[in-house]
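for the writeup, i need someone to sanity check this before i put it in the appendix. the sequnce is what the collaborator sent (i think, or maybe the updated version? ugh). structure was predicted straight from it, no edits. if anything looks off just tell me and ill rerun, i have time this weekend
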Amino acid sequence: MTRNVATWPNLVTLLRLLCLPLFLWLLFTRDDRAAAAYL
């Protein structure tokens, strides 16, 4: 049985995980919390 892990929900989750460092940088090092909230 083959399992295809490259599904759309998994790709969206991967994209969200890749944005996490950017979110943390915007939240804690910049004074622009609105940009972090938008992300």
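The chain has a mean pLDDT of 86. The radius of gyration is 14 Å.
thx in advance!!
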